Amino acid sequence: MIHKNVDQAKKASSCSSKTPQNDADKQRMEMDAMIKDNLARIKHKFFVLSGKGGVGKSSVSANLAATLAKKGYKTGLMDVDVHGPSIAQMFNITELLDIAPDTKQLLPRRINENLTVVSVQALMQDKDQAVIWRGPAKTGIIKQFVGSVAWGNLDFLVIDAPPGTGDEPLTVVQTIPDARGIIVTTPQEVALADVRKSISFCKTVKMQTLGIIENMAGYTCPHCNKHIDLFKSGGGEKTAKAQGLNFLGSIPFDTRVVESGDDGVPVMMYEAPGPFKDAFEKVVENILKQIEV
Amino acid sequence: MIHKNVDQAKKASSCSSKTPQNDADKQRMEMDAMIKDNLARIKHKFFVLSGKGGVGKSSVSANLAATLAKKGYKTGLMDVDVHGPSIAQMFNITELLDIAPDTKQLLPRRINENLTVVSVQALMQDKDQAVIWRGPAKTGIIKQFVGSVAWGNLDFLVIDAPPGTGDEPLTVVQTIPDARGIIVTTPQEVALADVRKSISFCKTVKMQTLGIIENMAGYTCPHCNKHIDLFKSGGGEKTAKAQGLNFLGSIPFDTRVVESGDDGVPVMMYEAPGPFKDAFEKVVENILKQIEV
After folding, report:
1. For bias kind Polar residues, which ranges apply (chains A, B) (predicted)?
2. This model's pTM is above 0.90
């Protein structure tokens, strides 16, 4: 069903014809109703944003969802990064998603009792195929991900969007108007310049922002145990203050995050503690403080 | 003029009305002629791509352009990353671009005798403003950057596009059909998965690809001088071999690249040698070997 829907999304461009197409209108109304119905059963929606790519937005999304699930909350994770979906790899999801025989809804992949995941990657037969879609097709697939997936009753839905302020983030905000933003950055100015754009985006679209996470902030040499600022330091907190946003915390760089991203088990699902885990726990606490769960 | 053009680009969506608009058609034909004229005066076009963000694509673009200019080639650098333009910061371009009084063309910023730069950032009054444009508007601005900028006679034009395989890369390829791809990655699998998508993109759009650069490959601890694989190692070369592409070389991680990116002078413009500079020189040699200049 979803493959047919994807085809339809690709055909349904943003250009509306002058003569009203009753079938298309009807389908759109049906989809809007499905989206509304699904969203009503999800208590809190977190939208993880970054201005710049490569700041660890997908790692943060994956570990945030894993932590919330570990705390006992029913959690969904939705990867809408059409061009560079990383979430499937991070949870070792290699097979296509299944379809429910009765409702014909797409079934999210169950990672554990509390955590389900959907990634655009899990819809593709050939994982190395580039998705060369223009904006309107991407809008279509994101709406499908909200409306055609059997999310069920959730405490949290974590949404991982591509970097920047283009079609995908805009569609997420328009489709999920009560989503709350969590902004991820690294400490250096080139990244912070893009973060200020993300903050401007949140203000423009009037999305509530829970705060800024500074990722890859500091590293401990595995040989001599001395501290190294790989991407400078302190920029995230400074930017949060200057922009009147909450600073949710600094997370150190950890090669285990790189390895765990490749191995399919997010660090927050490990049992052993460590500086990354400790810092990440604090970030999640700072997020939950602002929410009534 | 460009601000008016940007407005027009934003209005001119992809939806063509049923009644032919002669003015719009005429403008489009004029723009196509300007693009053709500009491209005819540029010998070689390099399109720097990455599947994943944050792999250092903009650093590589900036340092590639700086190195070519240093070797005596007339070089232009065009930043078409509408949502996260980093190139202006990397060359400390803080003012808006000027307009030629006679031709009304946009004047690229002159960095030195051989190097000129244009970034979407240099068109914005408020640097922290998010550019919330959907696909068609982005297509418009990229075409303007090729056709309305007084590039003059160039040996090389280096194009820095946003990560992924969406509107912007597609527009670059359609506007500059003889552009040759240079793919940047980091060594870990999550990045390589996206690189394979970039390779698939190049094949799909039939763009010649010069090869793969592996960036942030290895780091030397500044305290104990021991080697650390921050993002694993060897993945770029392995992927190049598996995909039948040239491997252009590995470049080590260097905090000086982070700092120089913030300070406005790319490392390749420094005088002092170092592991990053040496490795980068080899990469540029491997690129130039494949080109008749």
Report:
1. 11-22
2. no
